[in-house]
Amino acid sequence: MTSLTMARSNPSFPIDFTPLQGTSNDCANCGQGARLDFGFEYAYQPIVDVARRTIYAHEALVRGPQGESAASVLAQVNEHNRYRFDQACRVKAIKGASALGMTEHLSINFLPNAIYKPELCIRTTLEAARVHGFPLERIIFEVTEGERVEDGPWFAEILREYQRCGFKTAIDDFGAGYAGLSLLADFQPDLIKLDMGLIRNLDADRARRTIVRHLARMCEEMNIQVIAEGVETVPEHDALREAGIHLMQGYLFARPSFQAVVPVASVVFAG
Prior knowledge:
TIM Barrel; eight-stranded mixed beta barrel; 9 strands; 19% strand; 271 residues; alpha/beta; disordered N terminus
């Protein structure tokens, strides 16, 4: 019985991250982007701490080789190359952040339904961090809450393995997807990112302000940091500050920078 099979039958069983013998070429090379017949690059958008007026992290956002939209890249991802693409994204994001001299956290999106061999995919990420000298504790893995995950408890266990390895974890687009509070009950990430649908016109919408305020209080009790994404106006910023949220991301502060990181001196801080 493999470690993956044992982990599925017993959630308390730790995943084995030692090198696996007899790994197929497909899995062994996926971290290098093998067999992907399309290229991609990254733009980096800062996540700012408005209270400290610093940059907390940079989110790696997929772009085409010449800066084309993420949609143009993701349209080429299918069930046959999904896992290899996910692995190539991790390696490329870490390599790029290291080359750019990033000293803040690096936030990487990953595809939850691409993780069918966690003992391989995490090992590939650990190796990339080692090779490029990027500290594990500065890597955040964001999972999009809007992507349907068939086995919630098993998925929560995968996220716990990421934390055990030293990575930070985040649930992206929180409040917009399938799992919602059920996922949060199974797994407490280091961060959640409030969906921009909750943020838009927050200042003028009493219901949204109430929801955001209570989510912020709940996460504080659970020792989870909250990031508000998609912040575009000063009134939205002000309403978020009133709710006790100080980590924010959006066009109000800075747009993504293609193959470069935005310096703190270029961030527009409101207030």
